[in-house]
Amino acid sequence: CNWDEEQIDSDYNNIIIVQDKNLALTYTDEFNQMWGDTGLTPNAGNSKFGPDKTDITQHTFTIGGATVECYFSPSDATNSHILQAISSAQSQLFFGVYTFTESVNADSIKSKYQSGVYTAGIIDQYSQSFSPYTTLHPVMGNKLQVYSQSHSIYHNKFVLADVCNLSSDPLVETGSHNWTVSADTKNDENTLIVHDAVTANLYYQCFYQNLFDLGEVLVPCQVTGEEELSADENFKFFPNPTTENCQIEVSSD
Description:
Blueprint: H1 5-9, H2 21-35, E1 60-63, E2 66-73, H3 78-87, E3 92-97, H4 103-114, E4 118-124, H5 131-140, E5 144-147, E6 157-161, E7 171-175, H6 181-185, E8 189-195, H7 197-213, E9 235-238, E10 247-250
Parallel strand pairs: 3-4, 4-5
Antiparallel strand pairs: 1-2, 2-8, 3-6, 6-7, 7-8, 9-10
């Protein structure tokens, strides 16, 4: 989400706030590389942007029991990690992207779709004229929707993998990095990959609604990797309806 009124009031974006000292310090290190100093006064002689930057930061963190990856462009080969997120999908693969010109990403998504992974995506109309749309639309059909409005844009850039498969690796990849060569080789961008089922589910709920609003309905998420109650077990769910906390009482062990 850029910091302007249209982005906040009209456009489709996502924001994630991670409360973790080590991750915050990693962003600080990246900022200081562009600032040119660790103090309050910038040093233009030392500051580095774009291709002049080097990979100086930590990339893997454990936050609240979840693995979180962090990458900065263009020093960290970010698109290779986005491709890893796409290729990790075994059951479901969903994506929403504003500027999508990277053919390798489209080829990877196409391969997953054709291998039987349940796949759906949203792109902004800005990307409809580029080759990834030509690659994916004939294969995905209505499972690839184009957001086309005169008053707003679909500005997200995210991947969701295996959001319903808890025995796999549910993840969210998100950040400022568009799926373009420029984002990967020239622009200063940041990307997070959050390996967490709850976070992935939150993003899934939003994506489901976005796709529904465009006229396409996903098959409801059937969560796997959880033990289910058998039909003959007696249990009580209360209060019903509930707005906050609920309780489940099961008669068996």
